[in-house]
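Course assignment 3, question 2. Fill in each field.
Student: A.L.
Task: Predict the tertiary structure for the chain below.
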Amino acid sequence: MKDDPKYIPALCVKEDDDSMSLNVLLAVNKSNWEDGNEVLLKVKEGFEGIFAALSEVSHVKENAREIEDRIFTAIISMCSLRILCRLRFVANNRKKPKQAIKSVLGEALSSLQQLPIKRLGHQLPVAESFIKEAKNVIKLADAYAKYQTQGRLKDLVAGVHHMKQIGKLQDLLDIIPNKIMDPSVKQNLVNIVTKVSRYWEAAHFLHRVARRHNLIRNMKVVLVNLPKEAFQRAAIDNYSRKLTSTLARISEGHQRRPNIDHLCRLIKTTERQADDQFAAQTKKTLREGKIHAEIQLIYYCELHASRLLLPPRIICSSKDACFLCNAFILMHGKMHMPRYHGRLYPGWRLPQIPYLKDLEQRFNVVLDNQIRDSLKVLLVRNSRTVYPDPNESTLLTLAASTSTLRTVGALSEVTGRGGRGGGGGGGGGGGGGGGGGGGGGGGGGGGGGGGGQRLVHHGIIDEELVEVNHVGAPNQQASSVSSEGIRTASLDSELEAGIVVTDDGIEADASNQHTSQLPPQNTQSQRSLSSQGTTTDANCKLLQGKLLLHSAAVEFEPRLYTAAKSLEIHLEYAITPTPRSAESTSSEDLGYGIEWLSAEEAREVLKEHKAAAASVIIDVDTLQDETTHELDEQNCVFLKAHGAVVKIFRQPLR
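Answer field:
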């Protein structure tokens, strides 16, 4: 599988009750019915190799390492071209060549050796470990360059993962003055290590989940092919639509008719030029437009809705969703996309399926509203807003793309004191909002980026893992934590600028305007939580020194906890009802506790951690990327942010 901008794949997962398996629905961007079929078959072949390895997983630990290695090998085989691109062994066709990993690591080693030991301070052990692992990665990179085999590439990826395991790489690089090592080189190194390491992490994660859930061992690929008529194109002969008349139609009944001359002056064009450009782009879209993979998946699920007892809820792609895909997914309201980059592609189109004409009509209303909002922004700012090209590839938590397989019961909540203990794990999803521009009918502008809409998301949880993702932003004081484990993301106002891991490094993802947060339609209603001593909504303010315990008995509603006015923690049990109970977790496992520690307790925990590093303490303030943490021996994890320390632990409740 390679990075081809013409054929971006997307997938979603659904449970097949008849065959007791998981179907992975797969699609790629298409301009016609036969377009992209070769790419689809190639991607399918790669997934089938991974699924074949997963089918060998069992509860027995004797051959666990061997099977996990097979999964890793299958992933490397499928993604080798993309891995080589990330390691800078081959150039990305759309971008300028960058320093290869050997060159970047060599510069980092040289820079560290110029620093006095005193300057490294408490980072000295990290620096020593990094130097050792970096030299090993350089050796592995040389070995691969001399003899390019899949086995050597696998060793190189594993070596990069070992280097990431050192932790605090960003903190170590920050010690190096910018005059010694360019900031962009530091960012590229962090980006390479983080993204390449993910291939090993994916194999490890899939293996651990497959050992717990039979369905993961029985997965198959279903290629999504919409009916031929879906790709039919509207006739463009004698088609002439003017921008001025379109804007007048959209504004009718909502606001005063826009002054076209004034609008044209603001965007530095004339009325005639605007009409000509709009007509030309509209005809080009009608003639060449593509149906994006995400949209094909939605239409496919709608066409087969009667047979989908447990329909997919999450769509994932090799790239973040574009502006129009994200707007459509929000309007549709039945699925969720983890992130979108906000760029508007004028060559985007919808399938032509009369049976689903209502989706097209509803989406036209959405676009009309967005165009009106964009016109208001243009008039308020009195100038055209130029957005930088967004980064379309960002790193997400592993668990964000998985489907629910667990069994659940409803939640009852009690408060009181409780010790540490074993039991079930918690998890969930969440995310921040992003940006967006405006446009429609083949024209317009877009920009921005960010996490997808905040919808309830349940997923598979590895009870021994905690997922953390921190997105920082200027002038931000609060963080939110949500998890399939726990994910943190900074809060901001409607104007958001975040830091995301991209192919170009860690960069500011600036956005001046949000896409409208549209209310989901036809979604399943959520039961409100009613428990003794709590409110019926999903928000809860933690009181310092007061412990909250939760148990699941019927259905758990995601909860948002706040502590110290600066930390928000979004917790979910990633479990959903299913007729299968063979692997269900007992009621003893379905519990957790959360506590904002008192100042004295917090000092004691930090003191113990500093002395023996026995506890898992996540410093939210310093996070710039997603990390995975195992719980400590007491099944606990601690979050430290803005002076507050919050303890979260698994708690048996019987």
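Instructor remarks: The CA atoms of residues 468 and 487 lie 4 Å apart. The mean pLDDT is 73.
Grade: pending
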